[in-house]
Design goal:
The protein is of the alpha+beta class and 219 residues long. The chain has one domain. It has five helices and eleven strands; from the N terminus they run ααβββββαβββααβββ. The strands form three sheets. Strands 6, 7, 8, 9, 10 and 11 form a six-stranded mixed β-sheet that branches. The protein has a three-stranded antiparallel β-sheet with strand order 1-4-5. It starts with a helix and ends with a strand. It holds the Pfam family Extensin-like_C. InterPro entries: Extensin-like_C.
Length: 219
Amino acid sequence: MRIRGAWLLLMVALAGCVGGPKGKPSRPTHRPPPAAKADDPRELKQCLVDLGKYGATYTQLPDRWFGNGCSATGAVQLNAIGIPVTNLGAMKCRTAERLSAWTNEAVQTAAMAWLDSRVVKIESFGTYNCRPRNGVAGAKLSEHGRANAVDIAAFQLANGRRITVEKGWNDSDPNVRNFLRAVHKAACRRFAVVIGPAGDAAHYNHLHFDMGGDGPYCR
């Protein structure tokens, strides 16, 4: 039953893969392609221990490979990390661990400092998505296609306010601007690559975090 449950979670999490012909989802396989690099099982084991330090609960997912170089290996499905985070699908363990650290440490500290309220929910645009960077055909594979990235769009506060990256980044309220810049800066200390509205036009409405090999990069 546990294996079946993990399989169902994986299929839901990977429903956004559109790498197959005519936009149809690629069918996953248990077998890695010849050029695929295997995840280090020792690193994964340590990551799972680190993830537990933040009180996170998760389901470890079976490795899957898809067409067009997309994959979800060494991945987990986060069930809880202290507060709800919407739209979380398959994420590589280290990306999930870094998200848990950022949520529990940096987000709440910045919210109390600048907005005088705790964050009770974070809204994301998702994690795994089999696509090129910024959705541009012919571009390099996005880290989303490796289940190695997450996009953060908004924060719901205990006092009822909702802070979005799109409207808040250049908000007339300096406290909102300072909060978003604080969580952005904090993410740069935890993730390899962080891109926000100041980075490029494609990120006008979210903060992109990933643990890819192009870092450190913070914009």
